[in-house]
Specification:
Mean pLDDT: 89
Low-confidence stretches: 1-13, 15-38
Order of helices and strands: HEEEEEEHEEEEEEEEEEEEEEEEE
CATH superfamily: Glycosyl hydrolase domain, family 43
Strand order of the largest sheet: 1-23-6-5-3-2
Structural class: mainly beta
Strand content: 35-45%
Largest sheet: 6 strands, mixed
CATH architecture: 5 Propeller
Distance between the termini: 48 Å
Number of strands: 23
Number of helices: 2
Helix content: under 10%
CATH topology: Tachylectin-2, Chain A
């Protein structure tokens, strides 16, 4: 009974959080007399650089997009999907085009945008893919083409959740997709070389998981709170970043960024103490503080010879609204990442078109 109450509370809190996010976006759009705003909601951000422009994608109606020339002044663009893809509605009947946790990369002369379709606190989930020749909406070649469903999890059948995708390549340039949230942790599956599906024969690994109460029904998320994988390759190591604990609870969010590393993309990933992440290990890189109740769902990139950690944080001064944070990353003498939460928000000004 306690677990059922926990899941209901978790679901309700996430629902109200996302409703509030949508409300703020619509409220901001209505303020035509003030195109520059000091507050914006950003959840699960990923980023890419095309020419001299940074493009950011994150959870939102139809997948939210922003662009900037300096990672400080951001202009909101038109969402990727005006309407929910037909396959997504058929796969997840209560899906309303609120798309979670995208991943963006440039590969074979195209941009690949992976995204998550799901139901709250269920693993009725899918990962989809859209592609584009350019990210510049002013280009005549700009057009998102949906490639459909890549992978699906089904309650009662699967003890994993098909959300939070991230694509990484091994030393042979073979693509892999990590993904997962709660249940039995973070999974890794080999992809076809064209990224449009899972490679055959299938090859799967578990990269990270936390202790789960075996008495909990496998249809429920459970208490093994780990999600949002992102793999970053550097100097012979694959670094696996994940988020521990809980997002989407405003001031009660206690998200934290955790990391481990491996010599091979399939693991095992070890933390600083040598504990395997698939056995509950993980080094806490960033945690909440007096300014932010929780920080998490990060990506990490090298832009212009500097490494940056991109993530969201729940602003205590603004009632737990999630804000974009960009932290430069350095590396210690043992090649572990070092980062800190900046004193000021990474969003200086916002332009809504």
């Amino acid at each position: 009974m306690l677990q059922i109450k926990h899941i209901k509370r978790y679901t309700k809190q996430r629902w109200f959080a996302f409703l509030f996010m949508i409300f703020v976006f619509f409220s901001c759009n209505a303020q035509e007399e003030d195109k520059y705003l000091n507050m914006v909601i950003v959840h699960d951000p990923v980023m890419i650089l095309q020419d001299d422009t940074y493009y950011m994608f994150h959870t939102g109606k139809g997948i939210s997009i922003w662009r900037s020339t300096n990672m400080q002044d951001w202009e909101k663009l038109t969402q990727v999907f005006d309407e929910a893809p037909k396959w997504a509605v058929e796969s997840v009947p209560d899906f309303k085009n609120h798309i979670w946790a995208p991943d963006i990369l440039y590969y074979n002369d195209r941009y690949y945008l992976f995204y998550s379709v799901s139901s709250f606190a269920k693993n009725t989930s899918c990962i989809g893919l859209a592609t584009n020749k350019t990210l510049d909406p002013d280009s005549p070649e700009y057009k998102w083409e949906d490639q459909g469903k890549i992978i699906q999890s089904i309650p009662g059948r699967d003890e994993w959740n098909a959300i939070d995708p991230n694509i990484a390549f091994d030393g042979n340039n073979t693509p892999w997709m990590s993904f997962g949230s709660f249940w039995n942790g973070i999974k890794l599956v080999k992809m076809r070389q064209d990224l449009t599906g899972v490679a055959q024969p299938e090859e799967w690994y578990t990269l990270a998981k936390r202790k789960r109460d075996f008495s909990i029904d496998i249809r429920e998320p459970g208490d093994g709170a780990v999600e949002a994988p992102f793999i970053f390759k550097r100097k012979g190591f694959y670094y696996l970043f994940v988020s521990f604990d809980y997002c989407c609870r405003g001031l009660e969010s206690n998200y934290k960024i955790v990391v481990g590393r491996a010599k091979n993309i399939e693991g095992p990933y070890l933390d600083k103490m040598g504990k395997r992440m698939d056995q509950g290990g993980g080094y806490v890189l960033l945690n909440g503080n007096k300014k932010y109740s929780g920080v998490g769902h990060n990506s990490i990139y090298t832009f212009k010879k500097t490494d940056y950690l991109i993530y969201h944080a729940y602003d205590i001064d603004e009632n737990g609204i999630p804000k974009l944070i960009i932290s430069p990353v350095s590396w210690d003498e043992s090649e572990w990442p070092v980062a800190k939460i900046p004193e000021h928000n990474s969003l200086k000004r916002i332009k809504n078109n």
